[in-house]
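User: what does the whole thing look like in 3D?
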Amino acid sequence: MNESVIEISNLQKSYTETAVHVHALRGVDLSIAKGEFTAIVGPSGSGKTTLLNIIGGLDRPTDGTVKIRGNDISNLSDNQLIDFRRENIGFVFQSYNLIPVLTAKENVEFVMLLQNRSQAERDARTLELMEAVGLADRMANRPSELSGGQQQRVAVARALAPKPAFILADEPTANLDSVSTSDLLDLMAKLNEEEGITFVFSTHDQRVIDRARRVVLLEDGKIISDDRK
Amino acid sequence: MLFTVAWRNIWRSKTRTLVVIGSTIVGIWALVFLLGFFEGQVQNYMGSVIQNETSHLQYHHPNFKDDFESALVIPGAATITETLAQDNEVEAFTSRVILNGMLASSAAAQGVMAIGVDADAEQAVTNLNDKIIEGQPLTGDKKNQLLISQRMAEKLKVKLRSKVVLTFQTAEQEISSAALRVAGIYKSNKRLNDELYIFANISDLRRLAVLPDDAAHEIAVVLDDFEQVESKTISLSENSGEVLVENYRQLSPDLELMNSQIKINMTVMIVIFMLALIFGIINTMLMAVLERMRELGMLMAIGMNKVKIFLMVCLETLMISVIGAPVGIFLGFLTIEFLNRKGISLARWSSALEEFGMSDLVRPALALDNYLMVALAVVITGLLASIYPSLKAIRLRPVEALRKV
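Assistant: Here's the predicted 3D structure for the full assembly of 634 residues, as structure tokens:
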């Protein structure tokens, strides 16, 4: 068994939304090892987005602990969380969320710039990643000049740029057609198998679930099943 | 990269950005023009006062201006004029004898201030001869000649070569009268002065008032360099003993009042302009931030810290605020330069302006420091306007911002 990248213990999350008290997570325990290709699935309202937000350091648990690479992030301040996310977590969003005013290359480079990496290092890594996602010839294009599938591949390259502990992808195929979905899944599977990149998805998409090597089913804020293929 | 992102961000909505920049340019242009117009009015008034009334400096007996007593001549006036004649910084000067009196014709009488002048020296200082609209300037050849204003001529119902009688107090405290002949009729641009001043040869008034040949109640001085007035006042005062040396600001306190009034007006205008600009820019930038909440959430999610987010929005706001400034200032400068040469005619209000001795042609002008002040005001406005949208941006919580559509 590989070392654990994500270690979640007795995770609880409740909040009040429009005067309704929501208990989104009710004691989740989960451990994800380096190199896993995990899909977190469940119906709407099952708590998977909340779980992903907490794993990604975007939200804080009401109770319980979240350890990333052995570091407990549950009690970090906002600024510490931002720094932690920058160095440890790669995000892929449902609607790509690239910076529209930057080119594909600049989007990938951006997070490394936030890490104060040198220009030479940024250039080399950007080229490497754009080649890996098959878009080396589209580096100078802005997001509006790319298809949805291409934008999501740039988003994957951006997520990989800071060499994170894992990639967190929130419904990454939700806005893609079947061809783009298949291409993206091929790409992520390849990165997972060849380079040992850890992926954690939340998804409704059966095609993603079929390709995942571990499927965690969440319902009413609890893990109902955790299957490895 | 932050600069690049900020720069590209402001051009996301070209129309909106161009509208803000356009309105900034128009606002700055209007502000610069108005400041120039006000400054032009001050210079118009100041120029008129210096040219026609105070010159740059004047010498008086310390008590003369209390009640214009004939006996209170400037002690050592001859020495002073000799010194002034040798002073390289002095462009021109003139000695005057001033008698308070009454001028009477067969039809009417009028209280006057009779100014005894040396016609040539006076011309060099106040261009007196240029104001003559009828008749001849004073000459030393003929005795008891007089220049009166058109307004006074009408009042006394006299014409050229008419005889009038001037009654005054001599240096020996005796009331004396003399008949003078109208040699010329003048018209200045200040009604109040026209109703008061008459001009005669200084030699005639000295003789009539029983004053010594070199006596003077007033010596008016014009310097080569206007900028030297303050320092020259001090240096001449130090060397003039008990004689009072005052510059135009001391002689005409209303100048200072007008100056400070105009400065207050200018400041109020700048503040109003800044407020209008601030709210316009805050409105635009708030829209820009609210439209990009999801993107800002993403930037925070991938590790852009709050300082950098704050700086990015600040930079965008500052850029959108100051980008139009050079154009607005340059357009304002061109307008002022053009109108400075051409002049703005206020002929419609010339009779009102005459009350204050102001020309009805205003030439807008703006000193460099005022242009710099406008530029600085725009930058400060941009900085102030950037605070609220930037704070709004960093207060976003990424988890909530990412949910925004």
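In plain terms: The interface with chain A takes residues 1, 4-5, 8-9, 11-12, 294-295, 298-306, 308, 398-399, 402 of chain B (CB under 8 Å). The CA atoms of residues 116 and 143 of chain B lie 12 Å apart.
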